[in-house]
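tool_call predict_complex ligand=pyridoxal-5'-phosphate
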Amino acid sequence: MNYLSTRGDATPRRFCDILLEGLAPDGGLYLPAHYPQIDAAELARLRAVHAGQGYAALAFEILSLYIDDIPAADLRRLCEKTYTPEVFGTPGIVPLKPLEPGLFLLGLSNGPTLAFKDMAMQLLGHLFEYELARRGTELNILGATSGDTGSAAEYAMRGKHGIRVFMLSPHGRMSPFQQAQMFSLQDANIHNLAIEGVFDDCQDIVKAVSGDLAFKARYRIGTVNSINWARLLAQVVYYFAGYFQATRRDDERVRFTVPSGNFGNICAGHVARQMGLPIERLVVATNENDVLDEFFRTGVYRVRAAADTLETSSPSMDISKASNFERFVFDLLGRDGAATRQLFAGQLPRQGFFDLGGDARFAQAAARYGFESGRSTHADRLATIRRVHAECGTTIDTHTADGVKVAREHRGGAGVPMIVLETALPIKFAETITEALGQPPERPARFDGIEDLPRRVTVLPADVQQVKAFIARQCDT
Ligand SMILES: *Cc1c(COP(=O)(O)O)cnc(C)c1O
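tool_result ok
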């Protein structure tokens, strides 16, 4: 399989060429040159693989369709190392839980950091270690986090050979649980840098360090952000696993609702649907930061200023623009790289929005690609958490609550299951759960007392030079 850029660069690249990359050289995002098609016989075979051999075997089958530059036996071993009950808490890895007749949660948050990002990041850790060893080189991952991404990256990369992680977070601004999760890691290759500033300061520093090309090359600086194709690909697998659990026959159709921020998670659903998985609708759920809901309602994609991005009680969906969205627009425009470039490198930076509302192809977002959308507010979250607790005896997290709220408004006909992706466990956002239910959520036993563990974190001012000096010291000694 070759990969191309959404902005038209069609230089043939294979999976391992783009694995360690961020953006394509022309500023676009990588996508496979085509989506492998799953016909009825192949779908039946995959269902049997999943039923008989489990999630890791299914992951191997899907990944093999997109990766032809890692020997099959190695790829299978990497999948088996990643998706184990020890790491993901249950033999099924992604259990499907009924909420009410026809409405299900797909449990994606039983990994080490209790958010769905572990599903992809854990695989990425093994892939990176494998590929770096093959090339005889190393990588220093630099990132900024306000919570879920940073901890998922650290837990995936801890102890991995050839990899160091430098994770910047705004000093004192993450939830106590999130701080404890990250800062209690004692692995020598994990470096927590608490920056005296806000999340945007952290992101600016990452951009400045990565923008110093000499420094970047000398210290082999890389990223693991959500535009990485391997992360997206890993997420395609659980759409199949969810489908197989919610249906008995391969001609049944399902709907998915996905709590969305950067459009990574639901973009994986788009890929699964393009491969032929019988998904009737893909429902985008946003919170008050409704950039994506606005697009799917009106055709206008209008990025917000950072200052206009609201801080909500589903913080991992607080985005001003959706960094994976360009992938879907590229497909919507018939894979026209020049047109995609014109929108994302031309109109968007120039005027802050583009409008496809009058474009015939926009109508296909729903009709041909199955997309619908909805939004949720803080009050909706509280009400949904209460209702699911009272009616189903289950406590759901705030992001998942946005999904359940919107899913209820987008149910299909009888016999079409609606599957909501559970993107985090409630303990990560205990404050809002307490506000909704009058009591904090249950804490998994393995997290008892993590706030009291010794911490490994360095506090630095919001200063690019000091961050560079820290990285250099770690790498040069
Ligand atoms: C990252 C995250 C999201 C948003 O996922 P995207 O892939 O950015 O759309 C939603 N919920 C939780 C809990 C997250 O950590």
